[in-house]
Amino acid sequence: MEKPQEEILRATGLSKTFRLSAKQQKIERTKDRERVAVDQLSFSAYSNEIYGLLGPNGAGKTTTLRMLATLIKPDSGDALVAGKSIVREPEQVRAHIGFLTSELKLEDFFTPNYLFDFFASLHAVVPERAAAQKKALFERFGIDEFAEVKVGNLSTGMKQKASLVISLVHDPDIIIFDEPTNGLDVITAKVVTDYLYELRGQGKTIILSTHIFSLVERLCDRVGIIIDGRMVADGSLAAICQGKCLEERFFDLYVKEAGEVA
Amino acid sequence: MGIRKPTANSKAQSGFMAVMKKELKRFFTDRRMVLTTILFPGLMIYLLYTVMGSALSSFTTVDEGYVPQVYAVGLPGSLEPLTGSAGLEFQAIDEGQVDAIKESIQNKEADLLLVFSPGFADLVADRLAGKTDALGTTPPSVELYFNSTRTESSNAYGTMAGILGAYKDASFPLFTVNAGDQTFDLASERDTAGFLFSSLLPMLMMLFLFSGSMAVAPESISGEKERGTIATMLVTPLKRWELALGKVVSISCIALLGGMSSFIGIMMSLPNLLGSLPEGANATLYSFGDYALLLLVILSTVLVFIGFISIISAWAKTVKEAGSLVMPLMILVMLVGAMAMFSQSAQQGLLFYLIPVYNSVQCMVGIFSFTSAPLAVAVTIGVNLLVSAACVFVLTKMLSSEKVIFAR
Ligand SMILES: Nc1ncnc2c1ncn2[C@@H]1O[C@H](COP(=O)(O)OP(=O)(O)OP(=O)(O)O)[C@@H](O)[C@H]1O
Ligand SMILES: [Mg+2]
After folding, report:
1. Which CATH number is B70-171 given?
2. Which tens digits make up the pLDDT trace of A127-139?
3. Quick check: A14 and A40 in contact, CB under 8 A?
4. Position A22 pLDDT exceeds 80
5. Closest residue (by CA) to atom 5 of ligand 1?
6. Residue A233, SS3?
7. pLDDT recorded at residue B64
8. Which residue of B14, B18, B234 is in closest CB contact with A71?
9. In angstroms, how far is CA B230 from the centroid of its own chain?
10. Do A40 and A187 form a contact (C-beta atoms < 8 A)?
11. Strand B70-73's sheet: what is its strand order?
12. Ligand 1 pocket, mutate which of A63, A182, A231 (most atoms under 8 A from CB)
């Protein structure tokens, strides 16, 4: 049933360095003026695939995904998303991706119904198609009952579902998802991950970031392990694990890269 | 039903329109926001000025039926008919009671005490008759005792002093000043009213337009940034300039409505504030053309205000921070507005109309005082549109900047 895989995304040598403000230096108790958040990161993702970026806090996962979503520009390197450069053609990249993170919020004042239509028009989706997509997705996630409730009055889980649905208004081929299960209860988390699996079945590419090993093991076809902004391992789950469990392999790599686990 | 092709052009249009519509919907479906930014300003100004006006006038008026308590020592009979017509009634007293009356004037129980020098009427008559020996002596005198902290007392004093002055002039004129019934102030009623409006309204308008802008722009820009909802739009193909322009235009519409509500509030409360206005000083003083010009000037001014405040709001991390960053600008605008109170007519030099804010004030002075030059108004509107376009450009750049959107 699955279509043959093709390369949909290719990142080459992505790097990002942040200048630290005095305030940030104080908070993080460091004298460094700069922080290398992402360091020469390269990887590829294919259709019919869920690719996981796995790494501890501060590894640079969010920064990487933001670069792919064209919200921030890499200092060097580039990535082709559906054949479009994130550096030179950011607008076209945005037309092909759905980006979802807990930091991107929906306005509390509006209803899911209104916001779906609003984002559909930002994506220039033909109204009939948007309506069909809305009906299908709202039913699928049980949002239809809450379609006219202001986002501010929705539960956390329902808000997250609404965000997910709205990030998919334009039926993107590539879905970029930062910490998909963060802050969700097990039931809502399962609804979300099941849906990601379903999207994978439709031939889409899903790139997600997480620090949860079980999520990667359960969901991902391939995984890239990021430590301190560098890709220390990249490949199919089986190739990375080499018979061990993922957690064990991760700590092997971590000790090799960063020394002792403090 | 045609299928809308997502060509660059149709997309651009729909993005801008979508942002506009969203902003306006956000505002107009929120009853509290509509009340606080559009209805309340006008209503508050009307109530405030009306209350202020009646408080002010109560300082200077007394109850209509009030009869002042006036006492006199040695009142000449020839004066009585004059005073009667002015509504003053005298109680004759003798010299022994003077101190007691003075005390009650001090205690605000009595209003006025007149003490005529002995033989007042005869001495006046002698001097009128030109008796030379009378001219060499000290003239007869009247002493008026009153209490300036009691309105009734100082009113009675004013009336009496006026009567005595007129009596003196009439009996022995050296020369007269403005005697007669003709109008000596040759300013037309229109100019008098225009002068009044042009010294008051520009400053008030600037104040209300600015505070109207401040009520909406930080909320819409810093607020969305603070709540993380602006980034959600930034991951769509929406162009940054569409977002910037959509925000500026829609917020300006709202701020303009707030400003108009304030203007109506001022016009309606002005008669109450100033007590009585000069003849013809009301909203009908100005023609439709004047109002149309005024509206254009106001509109372009609001665009400039919103442009400036939007940039500050995009820079700020929170609505609160935006509020405090805008304060210096607000003070500047107020100062420039206050300068209008001292200008007789609009600035003549065209170069002055290249300065935003100042040009708006001068245009309003010009329109209200009937001294505006069409070219100056045109320059002002042009400059303001250019400035706001530049602001939209800067805002576009800011919205594209990760440092602005993801500032830590
Ligand atoms: N805008 C910024 N300014 C300064 N430093 C930043 C900025 N964004 C991220 N960083 C720093 O870059 C590093 C990588 O951050 P990033 O958020 O990408 O990590 P992450 O892998 O997503 O971590 P987490 O699991 O905690 O979400 C961190 O040290 C972070 O403090
Ligand atoms: Mg993160």
Report:
1. 3.40.190
2. 999 999 999 999 9
3. yes
4. yes
5. A18
6. strand
7. 66
8. B234
9. 39
10. no
11. B90-92, B70-73, B112-116, B142-145
12. A63
**Distance between CA atoms of A151 and B92, rounded to whole angstroms?**
84
Structural tokens at position A166 = 């709205």
What are the pLDDT digits (tens) for B248-303? 999 999 999 988 888 888 888 877 776 666 666 677 778 888 889 999 999 999 99
Whether residue A66 has its Cβ less than 6 Å from ligand 1: no
Ligand 1 center to A198 CA (angstroms): 30
Test B233 with A122 for CB contact under 8 angstroms.
yes
Q: Which band of pLDDT confidence, cut at 50, 70 and 90, is reported for residue B177?
A: confident
ipTM: 0.92
Beta-carbon-side half-sphere exposure of residue B76 (alpha carbons within 13 Å): 18
The pLDDT value given to residue B350: 87
Nearest CA to A125 out of B313, B260, B169, B18 is that of: B18
List alpha helices for B274-406, DSSP H. 288-315, 319-339, 358-368, 374-400, 402-405
Q: How far is the CA of A51 from the centre of ligand 2 (A)?
A: 16
Closest ligand 1 atom number to CA of residue A226: 21
Atom of ligand 1 nearest to the CA of A59: 21
Q: Which two tokens stand for residue B384?
A: 């303001």
How is residue B143 written in tokens?
Answer: 């002493």
Q: Where are the domains of chain B?
A: 12-57+188-405, 70-171
Distance of CA B340 to the CA centre of its chain: 11
Ligand 1 atom closest to Cα of B403? Answer: 1
Q: Distance (Å, rounded) from C-alpha A242 to C-alpha A221?
A: 15
A220 Cα–ligand 1 center, Å: 23
DSSP state of B282: S
Nearest to A86 by CA among A41, A47, A133, A51: A41
Distance, in Å, from the CA atom of B153 to the CA atom of A46, rounded to the nearest integer, reads: 97
CA-based nearest distance B37→chain A, Å: 17
Establish whether residue A159 lines the binding site of ligand 1, counting it when its CB lies within 6 angstroms of any ligand atom.
no
Rounded Cα distance between A61 and A55, Å, is: 7
CB atoms closer than 10 angstroms to residue A186 = 8
CA B23 – CA B220 distance, rounded (Å): 8
Q: Is A41 in the pocket of ligand 1 (CB under 6 A)?
A: no
Q: Which residue of A26, A35, A99 sits with most ligand 1 atoms within 8 Å of its CB, as the best mutation to test the pocket? A: A35
Interval between CA A61 and ligand 2 midpoint (Å): 6
Please answer yes or no on whether B229 and A118 come within 8 Å at the CB atom. Answer: no
Asked whether the beta carbons of A178 and B235 are under 8 A apart, the reply is no
Bridge partners of residue B90, in order along the sequence: B70
* Other CB atoms within 10 Å distance of the CB of residue B90: 16
Q: Which of B178, B226, B243 is nearest to B23 (CA)?
A: B243
Q: Do the Cβ atoms of A77 and A12 come closer than 8 Å?
A: yes
Reported as a single tens digit per residue, the pLDDT across B217-258 is 999 999 999 999 999 999 999 999 999 999 999 999 999 998
CB B235, CB A99: distance < 8 Å: yes
CA distance B142 to B315: 73
CA distances in angstroms from B39 to B23, B212, B248, B262, B300, listed in the order given: 19, 11, 21, 9, 22
- The beta strand positions in A49-136, using DSSP E, are 49-54, 76-81, 84-85, 97-100
Closest chain A residue to the Cα of B9, Cα to Cα: A124
The C-alpha atoms of residue B318 and residue B224 are separated, in whole angstroms, by 9
